[in-house]
Amino acid sequence: MQPIEERTFSFVVRIWWERRDLAGARLTWRGSIDDIQTGTRTYFQSPRALCRFLEARTMPAGVSESLITRLRRRLRPW
């Protein structure tokens, strides 16, 4: 089995709403996630995109359904 450090992930997630500079424009969901291990920042425009990122970054090989997949099913309205 891998050491806990190799099976643990740390992220900082920020989410916010933006309004475009057009009259009557709707609010748009935005977000970013900082991967603490790699030092990279990725931006998102939907909760689904955030879940896809987390799944790709944390899913162990050979696992058929992750916790992220189950959470994503619950976020379908987004």
Q: Got a strand count?
A: 3
Question: Low-confidence stretches at least 5 residues in length (pLDDT < 50)?
Answer: none
Describe the sheet with the most strands.
3 strands, antiparallel
* Alpha-carbon Rg, integer: 15 Å
Order of helices and strands: EEEHH
How far apart are the termini? 37 Å
Helix content: 25-40%
Report strand %.
25-35%
What do you see in this structure?
The protein is α+β, with helices and mostly antiparallel strands and 78 residues long. It has one domain. Helix content is 26%, strand content 29%. It contains two helices and three strands; from the N terminus they run βββαα. The chain has a three-stranded antiparallel sheet, covered by helices on one side.
Layout of helices and strands, plus pairs?
Layout: E1 11-19, E2 27-35, E3 40-44, H1 47-58, H2 67-74
Antiparallel strand pairs: 1-2, 2-3
Helix pairs in contact: 1-2
Condensed summary:
The chain is built from two helices and three strands. With 78 residues, the protein is an alpha+beta fold.
Please give a handful of descriptors for the protein shown.
78 residues, 3 strands, 2 helices, three-stranded antiparallel β-sheet, single chain, alpha+beta, 26% helix, elongated
